[in-house]
Write a structure and sequence with these properties.
CATH topology of the largest domain: Cytochrome Bc1 Complex, Chain D, domain 2
CATH class of the largest domain: Mainly Alpha
Number of domains: 2
Helix content: 25-40%
Number of helices: 13
Radius of gyration: 26 Å
C-alpha cells in the first residue's frame, strides 16, 4: 500500500536539510574581546606601575605581544624568537653567557631578564641605549648578532598571515600591520610580566618565617656597612638593590674591574660622558637564583662568586661612592655571612612567574 506524503512535507524537509548544511559549513564564530578591554595586572606589594598613557595594557594587545614574543618569524632565518634568549623557566633570561643569534653568532653581553619592566623608567639595556621599552623591543630584531632581520620584512611576513591580521585588528583596530604596532604589542606583553610572589613576599605578608641563616642574610642585605662596629655592620646591598623590586633603576660602576680592566665602557658608549665609564644598569635581584650567569658579561657562574666579588670590589675612577668606604679591606664577611646572603637571595625566587601560563608559549598546546 502506498502512503501519500503531502507536498508541503517535502518542502519542509528540504528547508531543514539546507539550513543544517549551511550551518555546518559556516566558519566558527569566535567571541572577541573588545579592543579596549583592560588587562589587569596583579602586582602584589610592588608600587603601582607607571604604564605609558599611549599604550595602556589591553587583553588583546598583551595577547598579540605574547604571540610576537614567541614567534620565530621575527628573525631572518625564522629560527629565533625573543623567547629563545629570554626563557620563562629562567625568569626570562638566558643561561648562556652570551646568547646565540642567527648563524650561531654570539652577542656581546648577557641577556637581561624580562620581568617587572613596568617598574623600569630609566631607559633599557645594560647601557640604556633604548629610551622606551617599545624601542628596545625592535632592536634585537635588527641586530646582526641576534635576529638579523629588517622591520620591513617582519611586517611583510606578519601581514601574510590571516591570524596575525585578525589579531592586530583586535588589538589596534586595523589589519594594516606596521612596526609601530609591533613595538607597542611587544611592550604591552613585557609590561604584563610581573614577579611578586616569592618566599620573601610571603614573609612580608606574615605568611612564612625565614630560617636562621636566611634571617642573617636579610640583616646583612639591608644593613649599612659600618667598619667602626663590625658586629653590627651589614653588607649594604640595599643601597643599589633597594625597594620592593630590589633595584634602583640607575647605572652604576660596581667595582668588577679596576681602571685598566674596564674594556666595555657601558653607559659611556651612549652618553659619551667620561663619568659614565664602566657603568651598567642595576638589575632587579628578584629571581636571581634562576638567572646565572651574572653581571653584564656573565663572568660569574654562581651567587657565591657574586658575593665574593662584593666582599672586596676593585677601585676605579667611576666606582660608585658607596663602595669607597669599604676599601681597601672590603666587607670582611665570614664564610657563614657569605652563605647567609646567598640563602636570602634565594628567597627572592618566584615560582609563580616561571609557571604562569599567561606568560608561556601560546603556540604550544
Amino acid at each position: 500500500m502506498k502512503i501519500k506524503v503531502p507536498f508541503y512535507f517535502f518542502i519542509l524537509t528540504t528547508l531543514v536539510i539546507i539550513f543544517h548544511s549551511c550551518k555546518k559549513n559556516e566558519p566558527q564564530v569566535i567571541t572577541e574581546t573588545p579592543p579596549d578591554a583592560p588587562y589587569v595586572l596583579n602586582f602584589g606589594n610592588l608600587p603601582v606601575p607607571l604604564i605609558a598613557s599611549d599604550n595602556q595594557l589591553t587583553r588583546e594587545g598583551v595577547k598579540l605581544g605574547r604571540m610576537l614574543f614567541y614567534d620565530k618569524i621575527l628573525s631572518s632565518n625564522n629560527m629565533i624568537s625573543c623567547a629563545s634568549c629570554h626563557l620563562q623557566k629562567h625568569a626570562f633570561s638566558d643561561t648562556a653567557r652570551f646568547s646565540s643569534g642567527v648563524g650561531g653568532l654570539k652577542g656581546k653581553r648577557n641577556a637581561m631578564s624580562v620581568f617587572n619592566m613596568a617598574w623600569n623608567t630609566n631607559h633599557f639595556f645594560w647601557d640604556g641605549r633604548a629610551n622606551l621599552l617599545r624601542h628596545q623591543s625592535l632592536m634585537p630584531i635588527q641586530d646582526p648578532l641576534e635576529m638579523k632581520e629588517t622591520l620591513d620584512n617582519v611586517v611583510k611576513k606578519l601581514q601574510s598571515h590571516f591570524y596575525y591580521r585578525i589579531q592586530f585588528k583586535r588589538a589596534f583596530g586595523t589589519e594594516i600591520i606596521n612596526e609601530t604596532f609591533v613595538s607597542l604589542a611587544l611592550e604591552q606583553f613585557m609590561n604584563s610580566i610581573v614577579s611578586a610572589n616569592s618566599k620573601y613576599d610571603d614573609y612580608l605578608a606574615g605568611k612564612v618565617t625565614l630560617s636562621e641563616v636566611e634571617e642573617r642574610g636579610r640583616f646583612l642585605f639591608f644593613t649599612e656597612y659600618n667598619p667602626a662596629f663590625p658586629s653590627n655592620s651589614g653588607a649594604d646591598c640595599q643601597h643599589c638593590h633597594g625597594g620592593n623590586n630590589f633595584e634602583n633603576d640607575k647605572y652604576m660602576n660596581n667595582g668588577i674591574d679596576n681602571e685598566m680592566g674596564i674594556t666595555d665602557f657601558g653607559r659611556q658608549l651612549v652618553t659619551n660622558a667620561a663619568s659614565d665609564k664602566g657603568k651598567f644598569k642595576v638589575p632587579s635581584l628578584r629571581n636571581i637564583a634562576l638567572t646565572a650567569p651574572y653581571m653584564h658579561d656573565g663572568r660569574f657562574k654562581t651567587l657565591e662568586e657574586v658575593v665574593d666579588h662584593y666582599n672586596l670590589v676593585k677601585s676605579s675612577t667611576t666606582l660608585d661612592g658607596s663602595f669607597e668606604q669599604q676599601l681597601p679591606n672590603g666587607l670582611q664577611l665570614s664564610d657563614y655571612d657569605k652563605q647567609a646572603l646567598v640563602e636570602f637571595l634565594k628567597t627572592l625566587t618566584d615560582p609563580v612567574l616561571i609557571s604562569n601560563p599567561e606568560y608561556s608559549n601560546p603556540f604550544i598546546n
